[in-house]
Amino acid sequence: MKKLLLLTVFALATAVTYAGGYRVSLQGQRALAMGHTGVAVVNSAELGFFNPSGLVYLENRLNISAGGFGVFSDVVYQNEQTGDFARTDSPVGTPLYLYASYKVTDWLTMGLSVYTPYGSTVEWEDDWAGSHLVNNIDLAAIYVQPLVSVKLSPYFSVGGGPIYVTGSVNFNRNLNRTLSDIDGNRSNVTVDATGVSSWGWSASAMFSPTEKLRVGFNYRSEIILEAEGGEADFENIPNSPLTPFADTQFNAELPLPAEVTVGLSYQFFDKWLFAFDYNQTLWSVYESLDLEFADPNIPDSKNARNYKDSSIYRFGLQYDATDMFTLRAGYYFDESPVQEGYFAPETPRNDSNNFTAGLSIALNNHFAIDASFLYSRFKEIDASYDYYFENGQAVPFSGTYKSSAFAPGLGITYKL
Amino acid sequence: MKNYIKYLPFLALGIISCEPELDNPVDEIGFYSNGETDFSNYVALGNSLTAGYADGALYLTGQENSYPNIMAQQFAKVQETQMFTQPLVLDNAGGLLFAGNQIFANRRVLAVGADGNPSPQIYTGMQPTTDITNVLSGPFGNMGVPGAKSFHLITPSYGDISGVPVGTANPYFVRFASSPSTSVLADAVAQNPSFFSLFIGNNDILSYATSGGVGVDQTGNLNPATYGSNDITDPQVFASAYSTIVNAMVGTGADGALVNLPDVTSIPFFTTIPNNALVLDAATAANLTGFFRAVAGIFAQGAIRQGLDPAIAQGLAAQYAITFNAGPNRFLIEVPVSQTNPLGFRQMTAEELLVLTINRGALAQGYGSVMLTPAVMQVLGILQTGGTPTAEQAQLVLGAVSGIEDKDVLDKSELLAISTAQASYNATIKALAQANGLAFVDAKAVLAQVANGGVSYDGGNLTSTFVTGGAFSLDGVHPTPRGYALVANTIIEAINNTYNSTVPKVNIGSYGTVTLNNDVQ
């Protein structure tokens, strides 16, 4: 078990993708197939993420869910005035998850969850039109959370636990739109910080007034990743006292915002289950991405973000077709936290309509294979980032963006 | 499970088709229109401005940011085009070698001196590696030849290396001429272009101007073979050469754009050193005023002694009793000795210009006013106390006057010669554009805007202020990449207006200005 966990953590280190802001809603096959609902669905150990208080309602003593996704996500940019055109060539993201719960007594279940709710990988072609904002970014955060779930009455349970986060960020961009060395190579900086850790917590409750209706609530706290002493590597800097950009260290804070979820599930016609979740991600904590360089000759980098709290509306359906097959489908509307004028190409995300489906195949009483996929549909959007400055003058970076994302996933459920 | 494997390719297909696609992608042919013309085979004719010359040299990144290359990249967004080729040099040092010997200096860079002040310096970070004996095989879309005047483009053997030492050939053209006997125009026509641009004639007045007018205004001399390198080309010679070029290019069936000539006198080479940079405090101004009263007095006495009518002598002497005031004063310049100006100097007028290359250290030492040595001061003392200096002492005073030499200044008559020729050239260019239905590019108007108030862009205001204005490179004559981008946009706009095309312009804010580097000696 310990070895498995270690392996998982290593795998998760590369598990990143890009999403609304940098939230990656891919925390379980069964939940994703139902529009990533789950705050009121008692189904598997995926509750370890969606609503730990529900773990105590799982019938089996030991429940394990594990799996992963392949995220194929890209963005295309153009500016009709200039004919500039760019397309990201982002690597496939592979977010993974592992949830385990163990029923200690009828009223107490312990659990452990490992998941990656935040991350981002965007790779534009170096020196593209927006290279002064970002060439590429790779952001990853792994959450590890021991859990306890307590049944206070047949109708009501609570759960939660502390969260340990370890994260990393690697970000490269050109220093401005034009600076280059004598050979025309654009001056750029890479900031890199790994092993940045912090703590948070989550708490949840579930109310089950009848056997068919459940109502759930989950809150996951904000966690600020404070990168201290990260490496700032400046390249292609002109040999000039006017450009004193020597390699140095940097400090930065990256917020992983809190998320509140309320929802319900309702079982009908015996074999059908409907679920609805409402998420609010408290993105307004992300006001600015500021890099403070240790070298006093290098001006700090302030990058206004001014995100707003954003809502997600999720709907899911589940149908127990046979003893072996369970079919699922869902939809969610994901509201972007990015406000007008703050559309930065490092997290190029606008509102999306998301369609999901999936199934579980019960191989026997213990094992099931879970599969799901997500298709995110983004509208083409004319957007700009208006808070980049040259010599004190705002220089908006604008254009037309279109994103796409497709994420097939595979996992297993084990119960004993 | 095996049964499902056959569906994997479909799954992969689904993933590939998931690439985001815009409704109207600009990278698909048809988004922009070539209108009534054809950009598929573009050839640019011109001089250093066309070649991408900057900072006093031709170097790689300068060529990459030449306006023809910028335009060609935009043309390629409009339709399928041939790869636009340029006779690239080998390095970013600039400078040229002739059989291993350096014949042209390296580029300039903006270097910070020991005093902490940045100034243009010759880049010495590497030796030049481009040797003109290494002839490139073309053809090249960018036919810009630094140094070429209008008539040079139709001159056979302009690329014959044997003519380089004697000045009948151009080392830059030697590098990519298709044969020693060819002309620039012949090599351009041979490419059978679908579209051309022509920006030539600047050097027909510019070299005269940058040499401070030491050349000859050859107006009236119709044989360019007799011209010196700093001479003004006769307008008829210009018109003849220009129409020969246009007719030959149009004769291939090509459309094109003709670019007129900006005012050479509004470039930083002439606007950076003000003609009134003689800044004096009240005491020094009074000293100088006293000195020139003495000059006037000495001149009058000498003239009268030589038998000149005293009234006439006093009248001539009055021009030398120049008054200086606290604050800025205009410099003095040398002029030809004449009956009306027997001492051969005068103060500059408001419109007269100094060249960027003038020795500024000398200006601070009295060049452009007076070299006030102790001996001169002693003579002035004699005069102030009512004494009479000896003839030798008087000559000492007159000799202390240090007017600026002709090579460092453009005086009224030289400015007139330049503007007269320029106006004539530009009339020719406009008439030929109209007669042939070609796009006419008013570069003169755009440069005037840069020089007077500037051209605003998304990151500021582009002006012709030396070093900091952004439009001009460190030689004070040739644009920066951002300046060249503005040229490209200006030409594109004229093309779009003439041919109903929709070639997109570039964002000039994305192009750099002067290059910072401290690899200097």
Protein architecture, described:
The complex is a heterodimer of chains A (416) and B (521). Chain A is built from three helices and 23 strands. With 416 residues, chain A is mainly beta. Chain A has a single domain, classed as Beta Barrel (Porin). In chain A, strands 1-4-5-6-7-8-9-12-13-16-17-18-19-23 form a 14-stranded antiparallel barrel. Chain A has a two-stranded antiparallel sheet with strand order 21-22. Chain A is elongated and about 70 Å long. Chain B is α/β, with parallel strands linked by helices and 521 residues long. Chain B folds into two domains: 45-269 and 438-510, SGNH hydrolase (Rossmann fold); 278-409, no CATH class. Chain B is 35% helix and 12% strand. Chain B is built from 18 helices and 17 strands. In chain B, the strands form seven sheets. In chain B, strands 6-1-7-8-15 form a five-stranded parallel β-sheet, sandwiched between helices. A two-stranded antiparallel sheet of chain B has the order 2-3. A two-stranded antiparallel ribbon of chain B has the order 4-5. In chain B, strand 16 and strand 17 form a beta hairpin. The model of chain B has no long low-confidence stretch (mean pLDDT 93). The A-B interface holds A 72, 74-76, 78-85, 87, 129, 177-180, 182-184, 238-243, 375, 378, 380, 390-391, 393, 395-396, 400, 402-406, 408 and B 11, 14-15, 18-23, 25-27, 31-32, 60-61, 64, 74, 77, 92, 109-112, 116, 118, 123, 125, 458-460, 481-482, 504-507, 509-513, 515-519.
